Amino acid sequence: MIGVGLRLVFNGGREAITRLVVVAIAVGLGVGLLLTALAATNAVAAWSNRHAWQWTGTVNVPAGPTAGIAPLWWHPSGDTFDSQQISRFDVAATGTSSPVPPGLARDPAPGQYYASPALAALLRSTPADQLADRYPGRLAGTIGDAALPSPNSLVLIVGRTPAQLAATPYSVRVTSIPTTVPADTRGVVNPKGLFYSPPNGQIPPSTSDLILSVVALAVLAPVLIFIATATRLSAARREQRFAAMRLVGATRKQVSVLAAVESTVAALLGVALGFGLFFLLRAAVAGISFIGQPFFPAELTLSPADILLVAIGVPAAAAVAARLALRRVRISPLGVARRTTPKPPRAWRVLPLLAGFADLGYFVVNGKPVSPSTQVKAFVPGYLLIIVGLVIAGPWLTMIAARVMARLANRPATLIAARRLADDPKAAFRAVSGLVLALLITTAAVVAIATQDAVDQTKFGTGAVVNMLTSQLADQQPDYSYNGQTGAVTTGAGPAASAAPLTARLRAIPGVRGLVVVRADPGLSIPGTFQGLGENGNGSASPVPAGAVSCAQLATMPALGRCPAGATAAAFPEDGYDGPLFGFWNLDSFVWPAVNIPATRLDSLGVDAVNVGTDGSVPAVERARTVLENAYPDAGLNGPSTLGDLIGQDNSTNNDYQQLANVVILVSLAIAGCTLAAGIAAGLADRKRPFSLLRLTGARLATLRRVVALEGAVPLLAVAVVAIGTGFGGAAMNAALQQGHPIVAPGAAYYLITAAGILVSLGIIAATFPLLARITGPEAARNE
User: Fold this and answer.
1) What is the rounded (10 degree) CA torsion for 678, 681, 683, 686?
2) Nearest 10 degrees: Cα torsion 656, 662, 667, 673
3) Strand 138-142 with 468-472, pairing
4) Residue 545, CA atoms < 13 Å, CB-side half-sphere
5) Which of 432, 385, 331 is nearest to 715 (CA)?
6) For residue 737, how far is the Cα from the chain centroid?
7) What's the CA gap between 468 and 695, in Å, rounded?
8) Residue pLDDT, tens place only, 18-33
9) CA-CA distance, 503 to 501, in Å (whole number)?
10) In this predicted model, what pLDDT tens digit does every residue of 235-249 receive, in sequence order?
11) Which spans in 409-560 are helix H?
12) Torsion angle defined by CA atoms of residues 51, 53, 56 and 59, in that order, rounded to the nearest 10 degrees
């Protein structure tokens, strides 16, 4: 029987070959996406472990052995270039047995530094006074991939002497470098009190699992619908053929074997195609920023268990599905001929959809779980119920739309289409289910991105403050405590002696338009009620620690406010321009309180902060940043920064998620189009004899075309309205749970995409009209 089944597959004529190819392509797409999801999960684990060494020296990392290990001086810090974050680590070996960071053969000697390939390329392509002059010594080589979370990671390891780091604040001595990320990365400090987090290092695997789970659901669901639709091609003809075999003596087992052979062959070809697609597109897929950073292509790997699961499981599932699909033929060979109208769908079909909203609504009302791993278990079932619930509810909604259309029918084509839809709403919805699901996914993704853009408050920074470079020096002796945020008690300041020549060097930089140096004045503060400054999360007000600024300097940067008339100095927040404190606004109309400090004494005070106004050009900002970092090499963890840096970094992350959303939208829409075409073709193939009989009784071809158009358009438009509403509802739930912000209406692009998708779908339906003329001739009406 296996040989007979193979002959039926490959020698069964054009119809059999067409069905084999379509099913193989559908299975191949599904397998390729499934392999990508499995490989991405493995890549996330590798990506997380590549951050592990960057947590060296923090209190959350267990201490290593000390016997026989020469300590390594370790000092983590950060830098910025053109809104890109740079992770910097200064190290000093005290002996040949000192630990060595991954990606290096040995610790760098004093006067040497190693850079990641992306940073090394940036150093070579950028003028030295904008970047390389910040780092002592010379570039001795590149850091290996083992130390880099992503191909575009900017990482620097600088060699110093033990004496240099011993005198550098926050440096610690370590005897081991971790290989796994700490369990709790929210409040990581080193023993000296430095709060530290590498870029993207605080994204735990459980959070990335939630992202990948939602993406996998959004992409695999349309593919599964496509596979189910493709397997329905010529389903009625296959059932009739197998029923005829039963009538001439074939047993149930033999028919089941024939069906299993046909499905297994298609599944095996699809599995081979899926593996080919995965390995062919792996490099391109690795470049997609699933969690804010691309992967190394080599990290998108499959374990032996993954390969066996897919290679054996998919064909086995296809064979089981084929056996279940022929249950009517196995019951009786006459079961196919005795066709009756299926029972109409019941209203209970909307319950899974409502259950999905109820699941998410429970957490909206009662609060989401604290643990990200618990969030995966809590939210993914809700998202899954919404997606599956829409598919389950689709036939019932189609039936309701058909009944409404029947009541309003005033033409033969409308009445025929309405009756046919009401007769089998499951088959009618099956053809458009992929597109309906794509509309749901597109709506939810676009609204989520629009909401995230609104959440990002740094986008409200405007005018000169965006291009202002601020170097905060007052937090040299911080007292950090973690309770969701960080606070600092400022007791130190930069030296006064370096301020005078520094201001001259900064003013000489082309593009620098103003300069305000905040001088240290212990005990000086601005009242918290002073025009709203100092408001904290519980609505109370607290004084703002302040320094003193020259009114002459403040006049060069009107975006920072102004002094009272006649004053020579004014109180100003000691951290310089603090975007969150000021609400990211310009302060050109703000009048700071005057302080009684003579100008001669002001120049003798230490430096709390330096604000440099620039024209926003990269050369001006980066040259000023280089001068400030060389003047104050220990000035904070991330060095001087602008509000534009924050905006750029946030925009970069948002752009990565926008790219991921675009991939999901494009994939789902493309697969939905294939599903619609396959569904319409399958419906025409199964109905060619009834349509041929209608033509013989006098029905015009134009009437049949209207019937086909209505059978495709009515369920599409009716359920699409529900799908779009469901997408907005799901996005609102997600916004309340994950973004803490009301949903924001998408822009015009969303409505254009939605309208274009529906128009293209109607075009696909219209494209089947020529096929209708060919398959409804008199020869198709004869009994076979």
Assistant:
1) -120
2) 180
3) unpaired
4) 20
5) 432
6) 16
7) 77
8) 777 877 887 888 788 7
9) 6
10) 556 666 667 776 767
11) 412-423, 425-455, 499-507, 551-555
12) 50
